[in-house]
Write a structure and sequence with these properties.
heterodimer, A: elongated, B: mainly alpha, 22 helices, ARM-like (chain A), HEAT repeat domain-containing protein (chain A)
Chain lengths: 331, 406
């Protein structure tokens, strides 16, 4: 290989090696199996489908991930109509998910704007809940929620709990990984879907970790409504979500959480309410938290941990959360 | 894939821009991590998609935020943030005839020969597969891991990358004898500097570094002749710190070594990397670390190093001391970029209670008056979280400091 003359003049580390021309390698193969003849060729829909179908039996997760990635990579150049027809014919959930993901990739790359609608329609209408679930998964960590109207509210009313949870997972992961909590309409879509659900577990899944920093005023009102849910897990997740609302909604949210705390009996909900109050006030929440200690002495250790974390004066919520966990774990 | 194939290029000309590049390259997602606004996704085994929305002021879909110094504790999204920010690929995939048989029949003994034609291609998808397949073949077998490490001593180009990436991600690399061999190889002076750097980079998946390994890495990194391998050693040390700190809550042994490198290394690139990397883990600084970073802030010749010191000092336990230090340093600081760091990180030290200090800074340097008004308005609106303040700034780079890094 090219020997680098000096640190200053060389490209660094991995980049250096990426730039070094390849040199033919000596054979070190052992064993009886003849080397496969690896020839690159243009992908076709039937060829890829066959390869993926056979690959499903492989014991190598790496190979299965490769096939999934390959189909998505090739999606833009594969014939759209052929791909769509294959998707609509497919009844095996795993294959349907692969094909749906390819259609979503085409839509994402604007090779086929309508492809997302085809996937969304099947997510709603297929008779097999396993296919509906698989199709929902194919939209995960994409921009599907921007292109599919009230899809997620409708999915929350799906008869299958599996479909509802897959849809909830999409909303959580899209907001976290695609929008980083910074896209208000995506946050509002998640809250609307959570409120449309009659499945407390799905609602709690959506709201429990939702970043509501860009939440709209209407959605904030919806969250406050969920504080009155009969389900403790819904109340708990709504309290956590309200802790992160934008500045203009913080006062109302804080009042709602304090008010609910006084009448709340569920310990898990009370812990979430305290966390929400802490997040809405940082150090200024300490006097309120001190007052709440008198309502339920059993909550005193939890409230004290929050007070200690807030009194560190840290100015970022993630750091305060980390500090609170550290303080509670300390011997 | 070992992160940081975007490690700094030293081929550009002399001058500050050459060493400013590293921090932006380090971890790929540092800029993103610090803004806390434009987290890049990392799919769980699937292709990554770029974040759609950043700190767009109207909440509409926006472009990635450019900010790079807003602090950021690195909360739940840190892994995604520091993960390699792979660009989206739009080229079509290539289908490989006989790859199925390759997958089923390949062994560690045949891998190198069989994979060669695939590695010679420009197919990044199949290269990622080869890396993962080799990781599977290594498994938790120390002997296999050491065999692959042996290959890496003479492998070239993409082959070298795949071998070490696979080893880095294997279960076996956590075995003490494998990690020790990897470290020893990285310190082997008979190897080329870039190769040693690659080997030392592959140590960054270790869950922790024992005191002896920490000593070895730090002593090597601060050695005047360590070069790019020393840079890689420093980065691995810092990355392991982040993981170990998240798990154990104790960053002290690592921070001590990084501060030693950051003070003692004669190489500005390495020194700066050591000074800046702790911001990924965001430890709260005790009195001793506060003192050491204070010295860097007031004596480091590299302005980026002083900027990094201000960043890290903003998480000191002793807020009053740091705020006073920032106030005293600001008028003496010649660089507007470091002044901007002192100004904004004052808010990270003490929130709106820092406003009087920031007002004095703005009074002594009128260029900061518009910035002061923005901070004042944001705190008056009720915003508390420094990351939200940062994300709400109409201009996160009012003095063009980030442009210097592009």
């Amino acid at each position: 290989m090219t020997r680098m003359s000096s640190f200053r003049m060389s490209a660094w580390g991995w980049l250096a090696f990426a730039l070094v021309p390849l040199i033919p390698l000596p054979s070190v193969a052992e064993g009886a199996a003849a080397a496969p003849v690896l020839q690159g060729e243009t992908c076709s829909v039937p060829g890829l489908m066959d390869q993926i179908r056979r690959g499903l039996a492989s014991k190598s997760p790496a190979y299965q991930r490769y096939l999934r990635a390959l189909l998505r990579e090739a999606a833009v150049t594969l014939p759209g109509a052929e791909l769509q027809a294959a998707f609509e014919r497919e009844t095996d959930p795993v294959m349907a998910e692969h094909l749906a993901a390819a259609l979503v990739a085409r839509s994402e790359r604007e090779a086929d704007r309508e492809a997302m609608q085809v996937v969304a329609k099947r997510a709603l209408e297929d008779r097999d809940p396993a296919v509906r679930s698989a199709t929902v998964r194919a939209m995960r960590r994409t921009g599907a929620l921007e292109k599919t109207g009230d899809l997620y509210e409708r999915l929350m009313r799906d008869a299958s709990p599996e479909v509802r949870m897959e849809a909830a997972t999409n909303l959580v992961e899209d907001n976290k990984f695609v929008y980083a909590g910074q896209h208000g309409p995506a946050t509002d879509t998640a809250v609307a879907a959570a409120a449309a659900s009659s499945d407390p577990k799905a609602t709690a899944k959506i709201l429990g970790t939702l970043n509501t920093e860009k939440l709209g005023a209407e959605a904030a009102g919806t969250l406050q409504g969920l504080l009155r849910s009969d389900s403790a897990e819904v109340r708990r997740s709504a309290a956590l979500a309200l802790g992160g609302v934008p500045a203009e909604q913080m006062g109302t949210a804080r009042e709602a959480l304090v008010s609910l705390y006084r009448g709340e009996r569920d310990t898990g909900v009370r812990k979430a309410l305290v966390q929400g109050i802490a997040q809405l006030g940082f150090a200024s929440a300490v006097p309120e938290l001190q007052r709440l200690k008198g309502i339920d002495p059993g909550m005193a250790p939890e409230i004290d941990a929050w007070i200690r974390a807030l009194e560190t004066g840290l100015q970022e919520w993630e750091l305060i959360l980390r500090e609170k966990q550290r303080l509670q774990q300390a011997p | 894939m070992p992160p940081d194939s975007s490690a700094p290029s030293a081929s550009s000309g002399e001058g500050p821009s050459r060493w400013r590049r590293p921090l932006l390259a380090v971890g790929g997602g540092l800029v993103v991590l610090l803004t806390g606004a434009a987290l890049l996704s990392r799919g769980a085994g699937d292709g990554a998609e770029p974040a759609r929305a950043a700190a767009s002021k109207d909440g509409s879909q926006g472009t990635l935020s450019r900010g790079g110094g807003g602090g950021g504790s690195g909360g739940g999204s840190q892994e995604g943030a520091e993960a390699d920010a792979a660009p989206r690929r739009f080229e079509s995939g290539t289908c490989w005839r006989d790859l199925e048989r390759f997958n089923e029949q390949v062994t560690l003994g045949t891998f190198r020969e069989w994979a060669a034609p695939l590695l010679a291609s420009r197919d990044g998808v199949v290269r990622a597969y080869l890396k993962e397949r080799l990781t599977e073949l290594i498994g938790n077998d120390a002997g296999r891991a050491q065999e692959v490490l042996g290959w890496a001593r003479d492998a070239q180009g993409k082959e070298f990358q795949v071998f070490l990436s696979a080893l880095r991600d294997s279960e076996a690399v956590q075995q003490p004898q494998v990690a020790a061999k990897l470290l020893a190889s990285g310190l082997d002076a008979t190897l080329e500097p870039g190769r040693r750097a690659g080997m030392l980079s592959a140590l960054d998946t270790q869950k922790r570094l024992e005191p002896a390994a920490l000593d070895t890495l730090a002593n090597f990194a601060k050695d005047p002749g360590s070069g790019e391998a020393g840079w890689a050693a420093t980065r691995s040390l810092a990355r392991v710190m982040k993981k170990d700190f998240a798990q154990s809550g104790n960053a002290a042994p690592y921070l001590d070594k990084l501060l030693t490198i950051g003070t003692d290394s004669p190489d500005e690139n390495i020194r700066y990397l050591a000074q800046s990397m702790p911001m990924h883990a965001a430890p709260v600084l005790d009195a001793a670390s506060t003192e050491r970073y204070s010295r860097i802030l007031t004596s480091e010749g590299n302005e980026d190093g002083r900027d990094a010191a201000a960043h890290n000092l903003s998480l000191s336990q002793d807020k009053a001391k740091v705020l006073e230090l920032f106030a005293q340093t600001f008028p003496r600081e010649p660089s507007v970029c470091v002044r901007w760091a002192l100004f904004r990180f004052s808010a990270r030290v003490a929130g709106q209670e820092a406003l009087p200090v920031m007002a004095k800074m703005a009074a002594s340097d009128p260029r900061f008056q518009p910035q002061y008004r923005v901070f004042e308005q944001l705190y008056a609106s009720g915003v508390l979280d420094f990351m939200r303040v940062w994300n709400s700034l109409p201009d996160q780079d009012p003095f063009g400091c980030m442009d210097k890094h592009d």
